[in-house]
Specification:
Blueprint: H1 25-33, E1 38-40, H2 48-58, E2 65-67, H3 69-76, H4 82-86, E3 91-93, H5 97-104, H6 108-113, H7 115-126, E4 129-132, E5 138-140, E6 148-149, H8 161-174, H9 179-197, H10 205-216
Parallel strand pairs: 1-2, 2-3, 3-4
Antiparallel strand pairs: 4-5, 5-6
Length: 239
């Protein structure tokens, strides 16, 4: 849970769903009231306590919400209606191909074979913004014309960097950005930081985090050479 009004990013920390004290409704309610955005999913789990926590958050104060990992898996199982939820608050879902396949009821291979078609179908069906992580990563918002893409690059796809992208989305939403802008900027920040870390297959999330301040002070030309109706980011070319 993140608050732009605090000197720290996290207002409350809740461990995995099987360990958290989610029975304390008052504490959770107070935490949500003092929160500007919520990132739900990584480390959540899918057991009964996880389901209770997810229900309380999705039925609680209408804060901008980033959904990833087990939150999307629970949605795919019918725990909550993504389309209905999107009518009550800004939502950004950040699935990888496996999570997207469960949401759409398609095979993972079909998602990988036509990532853009899968993205468009998810946005059409659930009526909110989706960031489909992978190679390439794509983001499209409901009611907007074109998806943004990130150039094919190893860095953003390395081990668990998708979790960093999810947390970045939540932090940027808490600062007041829209879902499309938060998703695109978080994707760029984590991807570019991964490139600067330059550790290849041994890259870890800690490596990426250490380089984010350097990315924030960079300045690019802001010119795309793709010649395509996409928003491009000043990331390194594919390698």
């Amino acid at each position: 849970m993140l608050s732009a009004r605090k000197q720290r990013d996290l207002t409350e920390v809740y461990p995995r769903g099987d360990l958290c004290g989610c029975s304390d409704d008052k504490a959770l309610e107070l935490a949500l009231e003092d929160t500007d955005a919520v990132a739900l999913g990584p480390g959540l789990g899918t057991n009964e306590l996880s389901v209770q926590l997810a229900n309380k958050i999705t039925k609680g104060p209408e804060r901008p919400l980033v959904l990833d990992a087990d939150a999307l898996n629970l949605a795919a199982e019918g725990l909550f209606d993504l389309r209905a939820l999107a009518k009550s608050r800004p939502i950004l879902s950040t699935p990888h191909a496996g999570e997207m396949s469960r949401l759409l009821g398609e095979s993972k291979s079909n998602i990988i074979d036509d990532r853009l078609a899968a993205l468009r179908e998810a946005v059409r069906r659930f009526e909110h913004c989706f960031l489909l992580k992978g190679t390439p990563s794509l983001i499209l918002n409901f009611g907007q014309g074109y998806p943004s893409r990130e150039p094919r690059d190893l860095g953003p796809c390395c081990w668990r960097n998708g979790r960093l992208t999810n947390r970045g989305c939540g932090a940027l939403l808490a600062q007041g950005l829209g879902v499309m802008e938060a998703g695109a900027l978080s994707l760029y920040l984590t991807g570019r930081a991964a490139n600067l870390a330059a550790r290849g297959a041994s890259l870890t999330p800690t490596d990426v985090i250490q380089w984010i301040p350097d990315v924030l002070v960079e300045r690019g030309a802001g010119i795309s050479e793709l010649g395509l109706p996409f928003v491009s980011y000043d990331a390194d070319a594919a390698r």
